[in-house]
Design goal:
alpha+beta; 239 residues; two-stranded antiparallel sheet; elongated
Length: 239
């Protein structure tokens, strides 16, 4: 399947990120996942892409208090309604086991959902980023009352906690940076498409030829393509 990202740089940034990332459209159909997400959930690519997210990741039927689907769905609704990033609280959300079909693996996550816009600027879906903090939560729970009583956790527990919190903090920063990079690349593509149209209409040529001229001019001047495109649009630069 071709990547959901039209721009190769956006697709490369998405796939290269070591933050676990998944993309859903506004119907909550999974459109793409990166390798880090597949590793975090231990799922193969073809069992996720083009599947509704809650079909791919239903609640654990043996957990009568499971609320992962409800809470994640509410987060996506907030993103789609406000077009703003939504930070979810720590969430238990068990995932289907690959090794034992029908069984679930207990998992606790810190999810963040960010809006994605298409080339026309309209909301087209969400970037879903999760970090697995099961080990950290287990370390805290295993320590029990000693934490609230001010008693130090053992060195291994403290190390696990610190490492996981650092991974979570920087992981969300990476996801935020990736989302911004993807949006910037998309904005650049919009400028390029507009500039192609301006050149084609002004010169009476095809949009393909217009793009060839635009790209050749940018290479000759050693300037980024979207910068030349913006100049064409704003100042009627001839290329």
């Amino acid at each position: 399947m071709q990547s959901v990202f039209n721009n190769h740089h956006r697709a490369d940034a998405f796939q290269a990120s070591d933050a676990p990332l998944l993309v859903v459209d506004t119907d909550l159909l999974i459109r793409d996942v990166n390798s880090a997400y597949l590793k975090a959930t231990n799922r193969p690519y073809d069992e996720l892409v083009e599947i509704l997210i809650f079909d791919a990741f239903p609640d654990n039927p043996t957990d009568t208090e499971a609320d992962g689907v409800t809470n994640l769905n509410a987060s996506f609704e907030r993103v789609f309604r406000s077009s703003a990033r939504d930070y979810m609280p720590v969430q238990r959300y068990d995932i289907p086991s690959i090794q034992a079909p029908g069984a679930f693996v207990r998992k606790i996550w810190t999810p963040v959902n960010s809006p994605i816009h298409n080339e026309d600027g309209h909301l087209s879906g969400a970037l879903h980023h999760v970090e697995d903090v099961t080990a950290v939560v287990d370390s805290i729970w295993d320590t029990g009352p000693s934490v609230s009583a001010g008693v130090n956790m053992d060195q291994h527990a403290w190390t696990s906690l610190i490492n996981a919190l650092v991974r979570e903090t920087f992981g969300h920063r990476r996801a935020s940076a990736t989302a911004e990079q993807l949006q910037q690349a998309l904005n650049s593509r919009v400028l390029i498409e507009q500039a192609k149209g301006v050149i084609a209409a002004r010169e009476g040529i095809s949009v393909d030829e217009a793009f060839t001229r635009l790209r050749g001019y940018a290479r000759g001047k050693n300037v980024r393509l979207h910068e030349i495109a913006q100049t064409v649009i704003e100042f009627e630069l001839s290329v």
